[in-house]
Amino acid sequence: MRALSARTGAAAIVLALAVSGCQSKNNQGTSPTKPRPRAASTTTHSASVSSSGAPSTPAANGGTCHARPGPLPDPVCTPGVTNPQVTQDNIATTICKSGWTSTIRPPTNVTNKLKTDGIRDYGYTDTSMSVYEEDHLISLELGGAPSDPRNLWPEPGASPNTKDKVENDLKRAVCSGQVKLLDAQHAIATDWTTAEKLLGIGS
Predict the structure, then answer these.
(1) How far is CA 122 from CA 49, 66, 110, 156, in A?
(2) Cα(137)–Cα(145) distance, rounded to whole angstroms?
(3) Where are the domains of the chain?
(4) Confidence class of residue 36 from pLDDT cuts 50, 70 and 90?
(5) Structure confidence at residue 25 (pLDDT)
């Protein structure tokens, strides 16, 4: 009788271990690679934005960031970052002052390095520098951070492009008092293709 009980107890232990092992395997797995913000400066501030969509051309190949139709950048990798030196109170002596942006524009050797990094991060199969513009998502004329990687991305298409008109229209609206600086920054960081319609400006 004791031998039967021992065998029954041993069988129960083996069964419990087997079930436990199955559950352990079911709970294991690998997480997909998720976008992450590009290396950031500590002196700038991210704009609060959110959006989603499918990758755009040029095709991506293994990058951690994914462009969207528009073309629009990945909202996690490139959320848009503002320049803390520009505020609503000082726009007359900063973005609305003729020639001011030329005093803060980063040199080509800085933007070319960021472009190279961005082409890699976005996983573009076409790595030719000439087919991209290293674009400030929040433009300098709207108080965007000059050299923070979170405000720069390799936008497909050479300069100038259709986004330039939107940037100019928004700047005029801000400088004329039609639109608040923060609203313009948020609109262009979220989706530059709908920014003018959202703010009720432009043609």
Answers:
(1) 19, 6, 18, 11
(2) 9
(3) 45-199
(4) low
(5) 38
Of the two residues 57 and 68, the one the predictor is more confident about is 68
CB 181 within 8 A of CB 174: yes
Q: What is the pTM of this model?
A: 0.73
Query: Which amino acid does the sequence have at 43?
Result: T
Q: What is the rounded CA–CA span in Å between residue 77 and residue 64?
A: 8
pLDDT single digits (tens) 150-182: 999 999 987 778 999 999 999 999 999 999 999
